[in-house]
Structure formats: structure tokens, C-alpha cells
């Protein structure tokens, strides 16, 4: 049964019935995650927009990369903390808890990533993501070189930048639309 609570503060009802492939995707999410993320439900008012969002998300967060899935989720949380995006902090904080097995890591990243026990590689990555979020015009070769010195390849730097940029966009959409995180996220992996 679909969740009757609207995923955003906007009156944009989900396409009914969902196209077969979209319904199959939602069913897969429910099976694997135990829920259909509200971000997907929010985009389901326009299947072309949902497909575009899902394609870039899946490529950046699940596709081949020199960055681990955990590292990509860590970037999502740090960017979302700078932007104070409630939806993404809740959803991706839960992903950090799940992938790391460390509930406290998700909390550190949400509140102040500098207080977390992190490797030099992770510190360099998160510092870059934060700087790109706060002052993109100030990114220079010295910032990229710090990442190289921490062991990242130029392809990895591209991926760090792409993930950070994507979450800057999604944070703004989530905040502008009053997107609500699924309540289940709050208690998961604690």
C-alpha cells in the first residue's frame, strides 16, 4: 500500500498508476531498503524527472568509482550539513551508519565532521567537499593537489566534485520543496 503522507510540502501528486518499470523500481527499493525513499516519491509526479534524477544518483552513488560507497555517502552528509538539509542529513546519515557499522560516525558527520575519527584521506576528501560547497570559486590547484597528496587520482577528484555538486543541488531542491525524510530512517542502524 502506498504511503499516504505527501513526500513534500508541494501539491504534486504521484503519477497513477506508475509505469510498470517505475513500479518495479519502487518495489525493489521497498524490498531492499524496507521503504521507498521519499525523494523518489517526490519526483514521481513527472516520470522523466524521476528517471533523470535516478540515473545520475545511481551513477554517482552506486557506479564504478575509486571512492567507496561509504566515502560517497560521507560526502553527501558533509555537504548536507553545510547546507542544513534535513532530508539528506537523515537519509544519508542513516546510510553512513549502515555502511560503516558505526552509528557515531553518522552523528559526527551530521554535527561536525572534524570531530570524527577519520583517516587523512577522508579528512582531505571531506575538507574539499566542504570547501566546494561553501566557496566553489575559491577551489584551486592547491586544493586538488591536497587530494592527490592524500592518494586520490584525478578521476577520484572528479567523483568527489561530482558527488558534492549533486548533493548541493539536491539539498536545495529538498529544502525548497519541504521534502520530508521517511520516518523509518531515524531508527535504522542505531
What attributes characterize this protein structure?
190 residues; Single alpha-helices involved in coiled-coils or other helix-helix interfaces; AhpD-like; 0% strand
How would you name the CATH homologous superfamily of the largest domain?
A: AhpD-like
Task: Examine the secondary-structure arrangement and name the CATH architecture of the largest domain.
Answer: Up-down Bundle
For the record, give the distance between the C-alpha atoms at the N and C termini, rounded to a whole number. Answer: 27 Å
Q: How many E strands?
A: 0
Uncertain stretches of 5 or more adjacent residues: none
**C-alpha Rg, in Å?**
17 Å
CATH class of the largest domain: Mainly Alpha
Secondary structure tally, helices: 9
Largest beta-sheet characterization: none
- Structural classification: mainly alpha
Looking at the structure, what is the overall shape? globular
Mean pLDDT: 96
Amount of helix = 55-70%
Share of β-strand residues: under 5%
Number of domains: 2
Q: Using the coordinates shown, work out and report the CATH topology of the largest domain.
A: AhpD-like
Amino acid at each position: 500500500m502506498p504511503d499516504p503522507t505527501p513526500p513534500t510540502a508541494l501539491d504534486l501528486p504521484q503519477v497513477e498508476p506508475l509505469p510498470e518499470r517505475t513500479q518495479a523500481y519502487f518495489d525493489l527499493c521497498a524490498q531492499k531498503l524496507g521503504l521507498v525513499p521519499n525523494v523518489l516519491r517526490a519526483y514521481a509526479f513527472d516520470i522523466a524527472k524521476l528517471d533523470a534524477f535516478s540515473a545520475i544518483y545511481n551513477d554517482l552513488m552506486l557506479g564504478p568509482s575509486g571512492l567507496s560507497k561509504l566515502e560517497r555517502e560521507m560526502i553527501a552528509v558533509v555537504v548536507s550539513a553545510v547546507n542544513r538539509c534535513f532530508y539528506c542529513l537523515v537519509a544519508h546519515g542513516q546510510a553512513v551508519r549502515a555502511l560503516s557499522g558505526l552509528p557515531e560516525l553518522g552523528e559526527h558527520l551530521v554535527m561536525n565532521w572534524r570531530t570524527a575519527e577519520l583517516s587523512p584521506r577522508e579528512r582531505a576528501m571531506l575538507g574539499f567537499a566542504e570547501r566546494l560547497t561553501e566557496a566553489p570559486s575559491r577551489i584551486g590547484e592547491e586544493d586538488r593537489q591536497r587530494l592527490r597528496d592524500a592518494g586520490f587520482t584525478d578521476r577520484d577528484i572528479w567523483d568527489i566534485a561530482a558527488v558534492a555538486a549533486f548533493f548541493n543541488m539536491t539539498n536545495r531542491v529538498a529544502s525548497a520543496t519541504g521534502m520530508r525524510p521517511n520516518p523509518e530512517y531515524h531508527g535504522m542502524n542505531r
